[in-house]
Amino acid sequence: MNDTGEQAAPRTKRGPYRKGIERRRQILDKTVEVFNERGYEHTSLRAIAESVGLTHAAVSRYFGSREQLFVEVLREADRRAETDLAVDDSLTAALSSADFITRVPGLMALFNSMLARALESDNEDARAYFVDRYARLRGQIRVVLEHGRAIGAVREDIPLDTAASLLLAAMDGLSTQWLLDEKVDMQAGMTLLDHLLGTDPPGTYPAPTAGVPAG
Q: What are residue 154's phi and psi, to 5 degrees?
């Protein structure tokens, strides 16, 4: 209660705590821009610190290493995408987080670079992130496939766990090809896979749009 007897408004998070959250988000967002301009080898914590007007020591207090920063950038991208995730009639609905990454070229390049490094034995943070991410997405995709099968949109003769892994593999593989050659049509590739997993009769696959590579 205040001096007039009215209910006081709830206090909001301010000061150093709120400023720290905003600064952390600024670093995450800026990292993608710097990575897109400089690539993996030249995107150091120092370069990122300079881009946001901080010292190297200040950035290191938020993220202990460059690998930890890169992994947290990917986790934040997943969080933003998965807030809009919903089960619907699309076989690729649960690929929304992967699709979010493909819409940001710098983020896609970072994703692929960290995926390659996750295979190295000393990159434990990256490996743990990708193991968890793929397990989570496979589970989400299976839910979508089960829903599709229940409404007659997904074939009855395919193992759903394998199909979920295949959808993820296709997205990753197509994104890598697109990074190397922008003529690769990722959407066409995923549309074809959707068609192959679905129950539409032969001869009903949509014709490629004029001027768009068929893949």
A: -120, 140
Which residues have C-beta within 8 Å of that of residue 41, sequence separation ≥ 6?
none
Q: Which residues pair with 198 in a beta bridge?
A: 154
Does the predicted model carry a pTM greater than 0.90? Answer: no
Predicted pLDDT at 162: 96
The answer for 65, left when phi > 0, alpha when psi is -120 to 50, beta otherwise, is beta
Phi, psi of 109, deg, nearest 5: -65, -40
Checking if the pLDDT of 33 tops 60, the result is yes
CB 160 within 8 A of CB 149: yes
Q: Give the mean pLDDT of 128-139.
A: 92
CA 203 from chain centre, in angstroms, equals 33
Spatial distance between the Cα atoms of 105 and 146, rounded to a whole number of angstroms: 32
